[in-house]
Amino acid sequence: MPTVGSFPTLCTEIAGIPVVELARRYTTPFYVYDAAKIVERIGDLRAFDVVRYAQKACSNLAILDLVRRAGAVVDTVSAGEIRRALAAGYAAHGDPPPLVYTADIFDGESLDLVRTHDIHVNAGSPDMIEQLGEVAPGRNLTLRINPGFGHGHSQKTNTGGEQSKHGIWHEQLDACLRRADHHGLAVTGVHMHIGSGTDLEHLSQVCGALEKAALTVGRTVTSISAGGGLPVPYHEGQSYVDLDEYFRLWDGTRQRLERAFQHPVRLEIEPGRYVVAESGYLVTEIRAVKRMGQNLFYLVDAGFNNLARPILYGAHHPLAVAPLDGGAVRRPVQPVVVGGPLCESGDIFTQQEGGFVCQRDLPAAAVGDYLVIGCAGAYGFVMGSNYNSKPLAAEVLIRNGRDHLIRERQTFEDLVRGEIVP
């Protein structure tokens, strides 16, 4: 099990390559991913029968290819993600399914892809069962159940309970099974996920709720999914979950179901953030240092168009200064507020949920120094936008000591492509 390490406030290299070299080569802001960390995190979960990567966390084709080669299958939540998985080399179907479509609705394109490629579906609404049955009767499918409760590090990442749109309400399970029977659909899997950052206490409740749902479905169940939500420490005081205990709880559920059904039951886990969060860094340049009353601001050239988690959830990310001269000499530390370039007061990286600006102790820095935002591999680039007509950042993968450009920086021509002046 990984241990919690502090993120230093002075950073000179990423995965063995100097930050200054990377910045000169790729121009800020840009994302960097450490391939070795991704492979390590997948390996942490080898006790589970299947590791299914939730690609919505970070879906660059090079990352998907790396995950596939590391032995993980993939979860998709849109037509675009289905196409990404296929482009990254995943087969459309197999046992276990190399890719699964998990959603609460079908749009026209996703339903057509599922039908055409025989892609396994994890249905999150009764209407999905009806729509799948109309175009592909006789298929197998998984049901995502909302157990009536949820949990998460933010209300916005809570995916269970009556205020969540996700999953089939637990009291509607019998009716959904009748819908599936009507179309000859066999429910072979049960999935449950209540939110990101789930702890062991809530996990034990999920295990019990999933076991109850699986017993209601009956002997057609051949797989259960523990969902995702494995916590990652973004700052000191937070910790990883005990993976041995996590597996023990789920394995106990699996074994009881195997005894009830008298056949093997596959145990899946569906991590996204856990696999990629710690691998990723957003590198940005300090472009202004100014004082506003009691606050000293470092203003950088990355904003919430690049990393939206702070403004969305008040998410905390470790921050470090990377000196322009590449030196590791200690500098005096001072409380600062870190903000971006966007024409929005909320464009602040050091804020708490609710938009409350806070300070962070960082080394003294000047214009031209770099700022490295850590634990940015999950829900970073994938949530990027072109707000203020800002181009999407480049992405870089470091593997075996070498850096590889895996996404070119968006150009102005890319930005306006498709726009039409009548």
What do these coordinates show?
There is one protein chain. The chain has 422 residues and is an alpha/beta fold. 28% of the residues lie in helices and 24% in strands. It contains twelve helices and 22 strands. Strands 3, 13, 14, 15, 16, 19, 20, 21 and 22 form a nine-stranded mixed β-sheet that branches. Strands 4-5-6-7-8-10-11-12 form an eight-stranded parallel beta barrel, surrounded by six helices. Helix 8 (200-217) links the parallel strand 10 and strand 11 (223-225). The radius of gyration is 23 Å and the shape is elongated. The N and C termini lie far apart (59 Å).
Summed up, what is this model?
The chain is of the alpha/beta class. 28% of the residues lie in helices and 24% in strands.
Number of strands: 22
The chain-level mean pLDDT equals 93
Spatial gap, N to C terminus: 59 Å
Largest sheet, described in full?
9 strands, mixed
Catalogue the unreliable spans. 1-5, 152-159
Proportion of beta-strand residues: 15-25%
Proportion in helices: 25-40%
How many DSSP H or I helices? 12
Assembly state of the chains shown: single chain
Assign the structural class, choosing from mainly alpha, mainly beta, alpha/beta, alpha+beta, or little secondary structure. Answer: alpha/beta
Bulk shape:
elongated
How many whole angstroms does the radius of gyration measure? 23 Å
